[in-house]
Design brief:
The chain is an all-alpha fold and 325 residues long. 70% of the residues lie in helices and 0% in strands. The protein has 13 helices and no strands. The chain starts with 8 loop residues before the first helix and ends in a 12-residue tail after the last helix.
Length: 325
């Protein structure tokens, strides 16, 4: 029998907005460091720092006793999913412009809408399903299938989409766990998983031997040898840790406090932020296909959100003139 759900949409929306701002800064900092350090080193550093701050939230929400769980395997699966989502996304981020990678990732709310049907029992009618199809057409547009060659291999363009699917599944699990597990505890499990996995990467490939002779920039980012940070990079690593703590807590809090279909569309504030950071820090500006794909994806997400809000306003036991949506 599943735990009762918490429903505080206003607070959930506030947490998701704070979390997405932290994510946008996190992505900027990782892209800034991607030319000199491997991904698993950055993940280890930010998770170690983020875990310290997360433990403060654990203390505020009840102490170490809240870390006890009756569903360890669900937490383990959630941790594996978020690690996979991060690895695939950041591998793409080392190659793609920040705005383009973020735009492709933002099919995540559409994945969440789909996954909320079998896993959360939420009703999603034909109009919202149609909007999901439109959103995925935006992904196709950004793949520019009419071109024989692109600046980046198409498999790299698919990595943020794969990341979005893994992330969506993780957030659906967050919603299922939210009735019995504190947000800080959820964040601790995630940070702990990052530490274990990144330490494993260090032991396996941390000397950089597998990066020798590799030309793919995304693989180099994953396999590069660990390096002691330069003095000017220490504040960036600290910033990563602060963002990691904020992201882990805020996103966990958001999805445990409110309906997934209500919360997910607010993640789209990350798209203009990513375009802004890409322009400001790297001089990147999206190509027309990226703008078109963004419009389809964001338009679909906003439509799904508006339909969800309309559904929530229909009185129990009374059908609207649109019937089942």
């Amino acid at each position: 029998m599943s735990a009762p759900s918490i429903n505080r949409p206003g607070l959930g929306i506030l947490f998701i907005c704070i979390g997405i701002v932290a994510i946008s800064i996190n992505d900027l900092l990782i892209k800034m460091l991607s030319g000199g350090y491997p991904l698993h080193q950055m993940v280890f550093a930010r998770s170690a720092i983020g875990l310290v701050f997360t433990m403060v939230f654990v203390w505020m929400e009840g102490g170490l006793s809240i870390l006890h769980t009756r569903t360890p395997w669900v937490h383990a699966l959630r941790g594996v999913l978020v690690v996979g989502a991060n690895m695939t996304y950041f591998a793409a981020l080392a190659v793609l412009p920040l705005g383009q990678a973020t735009a492709l990732f933002f099919v995540a709310p559409l994945f969440i809408t789909l996954l909320s049907i079998p896993f959360l029992g939420e009703q999603v009618g034909p109009l919202r399903l149609g909007a999901v199809v439109v959103g995925f057409l935006g992904v196709v547009v950004m793949q520019e299938p009419w071109k024989a060659e692109l600046d980046a291999p198409r498999i790299i363009l698919l990595l943020p989409v794969i990341s979005a699917g893994l992330y969506a599944f993780m957030q659906v699990l967050t919603r299922r766990l939210g009735g019995t597990t504190r947000a800080s505890a959820l964040a601790v499990y995630i940070q702990g998983t990052f530490l274990v996995v990144s330490a494993g990467f260090f032991l396996a490939v941390g000397d950089g031997r597998y990066a020798e002779g590799v030309e793919n920039e995304a693989l180099i980012f994953l396999l590069r040898a660990w390096a002691w940070p330069e003095s000017g990079d220490w504040p960036v690593f600290l910033g990563l840790g602060l963002c990691s703590g904020a992201v882990g807590y805020c996103l966990s809090a958001a999805y445990r406090l409110a309906n997934a279909a209500v919360i997910a569309p607010f993640e789209y504030i990350g798209l203009p932020l990513a375009i802004f950071w890409g322009w400001l820090a790297f001089g990147e500006w999206p190509v027309p296909a990226t703008w078109a794909g963004c419009a389809l994806i964001v338009g679909a997400g906003v439509f799904v959100f508006l339909r969800e809000q309309r559904r929530a306003q229909v009185l129990p036991g009374r059908r609207s003139r649109w019937g089942r949506r």
